[in-house]
Amino acid sequence: MKKEYVVKSIDSAPDGAPYVVISLSSIKDLKEGTQSPQPAFGTPKVMGFSNMNDMMKDLNKMMGGMGAQGSVTQLKLEMHEYKDMGLSVGDKVFLDLTKAETLGV
């Protein structure tokens, strides 16, 4: 299966390790306009809580909505892979997924 994407963002490793996280958006989603330009964590939300139980119930809803506009595929690349590919935001890329064939029983 081969899919076409656009590089949406390139971020350094959160733990300082020598890799980068590449976020990809589907060309189909971009053409259909299902994704609007938004900050990495979506639109800020303000929620009021009357007690701690309500806060804990609604916290998952609030966190689940962050950055969930459309679908985003993320890849973790080692630094040398990233440099060899020369990727930048806005580049068109293709992912080719194949299933490994197993021989024997």
Structure description:
The protein is of the alpha+beta class and 105 residues long. It has helices at 27-32, 52-65, 79-85, and strands at residues 2-12, 19-26, 72-78, 92-96. A four-stranded antiparallel sheet has the order 3-2-1-4. A hairpin with a 6-residue loop joins strand 1 and strand 2 (19-26). The longest helix is centred in the middle third of the chain and has 14 residues, at 52-65. 4% of the residues are buried.
Q: For the record, give the distance between the C-alpha atoms at the N and C termini, rounded to a whole number.
A: 25 Å
- Helix content class: 25-40%
% residues in beta strands: 25-35%
The top level CATH class name of the largest domain: Mainly Beta
Sketch the major β-sheet: 4 strands, antiparallel
Number of continuous helical runs: 3
Task: Enumerate the spans where pLDDT stays under 50 for 5 or more consecutive residues.
Answer: 35-44, 64-68
Shape label = extended
Total beta strands: 4
Strand order of the largest sheet: 3-2-1-4
Radius of gyration, Cα only, in angstroms? 18 Å
Order of helices and strands: EEHHEHE
List the helices and strands and how they pair.
Elements: E1 2-12, E2 19-26, H1 27-32, H2 52-65, E3 72-78, H3 79-85, E4 92-96
Antiparallel strand pairs: 1-2, 1-4, 2-3
Question: What's this entry about, in short?
Answer:
The chain has 105 residues and is an alpha+beta fold. The protein has helices spanning 27-32, 52-65, 79-85, and strands spanning 2-12, 19-26, 72-78, 92-96. The chain has 2 domains: 1-35 and 70-99, OB fold (Dihydrolipoamide Acetyltransferase, E2P), CATH 2.40.50; 39-69, no CATH class.
